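User: Here's a protein and a ligand (threonylcarbamoyladenylate). What would the complex look like?
Assistant: Let me lay out the input and then the predicted complex.
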Amino acid sequence: MRISLEEAASKLKRGEVVAIPTETVYGLAADAKNDAALQQIFATKQRPADHPLIVHIADISQVNDWAAAFPETAVKLAQAFWPGALTLVLPAKNHVSKIVRGGEPTIALRVPNHPVALALLQQSGLCVAAPSANLFTQLSPTTAAHVETSLGENMPVLDGGACSVGIESTIVSVAADGAWQLLRPGMISEADIARVAGTFQQANLVKNQTPKAPGQHALHYSPRTPLQLFKDKFTLIKACEALTQANLTCAALLIGAGDRPNCIVTQLSNQPAEVAEQLYSALHDLDTLKVDRLLLELPPNTPIWAAVLDRLSRAGG
Ligand code: TXA
Ligand code: MG
């Protein structure tokens, strides 16, 4: 059900959940200071309670409402990348609800770079917690129609068009002493982060600590159709031939030009930003074909493809 900006703002103020556009993926939003509203996010998504939420804020001045420390490294990152597809995980103030942070001592914050999301934050005066607006472990939505397919026609959706980044934000945790760590790859690359934040402290940290981003399950971002991942087109084409011989149907997602299998094919470009933008839409579309098997080509294992490779690998479990 599509709603206006004004309706979305008043629903949020009444403690209801609404789906909102961001530049990465659509989010299932609720007032981040209203525990009952936050509980509805978890219930709607069927998401485990120990998976913390990202709080979306209107601008950098609101960080201090949530974070107990805003170290220089994090300030630099926020200034360089906000509004944008970067989430900062910072030590949380004591008063911050345990529900929004999934019991963690930290809080995840992001200023989204989407005119509709920013207008909503400004008009409502709220900070909104918003995980991706899909059922737990399913594909993330990048259009209002995707949200309705996953969460039902009755879910109120603020339609802001198709998401331009297309995959979830890069998540970086920054400790009170400024040491940083990449928790989830995104289209803002680890090299982009290191250029602003430096590398020395991160190297020290990695030795003592494994990255922790609760909710980063191996099986995530998954279509419902069983799927197989391939490192090259040649083995994918062979797999298609074998399935066809066994009287099974398949469809393929290819990255870049080259040989094609003899089945329905979606071919994405060889540019990481374009592939990211179209990735979930392509997977949603392939999923509706109801074939026996999806055959997905993985991009090269190089830094510029890290985020796309991460999402495709998780889709495969
Ligand atoms: O692009 C995005 O980040 C989208 C849009 C809607 O902003 N949101 C999103 O939310 O991807 P979600 O819930 O699907 O993923 C948020 C992830 C969690 O799974 C968890 O790994 C991490 O953020 N996270 C949140 N709070 C955290 C915390 N305090 N410590 C560590 N990781 C945290
Ligand atoms: Mg998600």
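Summary: The longest strand covers residues 86-91.
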